[in-house]
Write a structure and sequence with these properties.
Layout (H helix, E strand, L loop, with lengths): L1 H21 L1 E2 H13 L10 H20 L4 H8 L5 E7 L4 H15 L4 E7 L4 H4 L12 E6 L4 E6 L4 H14 L4 H14 L2 H10 L4
Parallel strand pairs: 2-3
Antiparallel strand pairs: 1-3, 2-4, 4-5
Length: 210
């Protein structure tokens, strides 16, 4: 097992490069999700009524974030001034509620600088990449990896949710054992009240901003 983990660690840069080269851009991902809504399907190996429903919800959530989220001017300028050639690789599925909140914000960041890309891969289609970036041993999504294209190095990882929301989830699990539908609804309310600030700050912490 230790040899396998060591091999995965050594191979992470190769896996990230593969993910970026095969990944779709955000616009194509949005088109895919919208198409799935129209035909009442979802991404992933499990086609359940619940996952189809979540895909429909997430399409609306992403549409709202795409329209309403704005990065403050002073932060925009810092991103624009970045000289590093970077790429975000997001591992996700269309039914993932946390991803629906974070991906539009990551896309807004990457659009500000021509040196930055945002590529998306589907978790169930790239198990070898997903398994190299587990969260506490689980295939939690979204998982975002920041890649330095010039130095061919991983600069950081993020996911599946902002730090404050992660603490909420951990506290709830500790008290109740598992997440209930009621808590998941409360989490969505938190995302809306936070207005993307927590996600933006977490992603900015990954970037080599001056």
């Amino acid at each position: 097992m230790e040899l396998l983990e060591k091999h995965i660690q050594q191979d992470k840069p190769t896996l990230v490069q593969q993910g970026i080269s095969m990944g779709m851009d955000y616009e194509k991902y949005r088109d895919l999700v919208h198409h799935l809504v129209e035909i009442e399907q979802t991404t992933g190996h499990v086609q359940t009524e619940a996952n189809v429903h979540y895909t429909q919800l997430n399409d609306r959530r992403m549409k709202r974030w795409d329209k309403t989220f704005a990065i403050p001017d002073e932060i925009q300028q810092k991103i624009i001034n970045l000289k590093s050639k970077l790429a975000f690789l997001t591992i996700t599925e269309s039914w993932c509620g946390d991803a629906a909140h974070s991906m539009p914000i990551i896309n807004k960041i990457s659009e500000l600088n021509p040196n930055m890309d945002h590529k998306v891969v589907l978790r169930d289609e790239v198990p070898e990449i997903m398994d190299a970036f587990l969260t506490q041993g689980a295939r939690s999504i979204p998982k975002v990896i920041l890649w330095d294209k010039e130095n061919k190095a991983i600069l950081g990882e993020w996911g599946p949710r902002p730090n404050l929301a992660t603490q909420m989830v951990e506290d709830y699990k500790k008290e109740y054992g598992k997440l209930t539908p009621e808590f998941k609804q409360d989490l969505q309310v938190w995302y809306n009240k936070d207005k993307g600030v927590g996600i933006l700050n977490d992603i900015l912490d990954l970037l080599p901003l001056e």
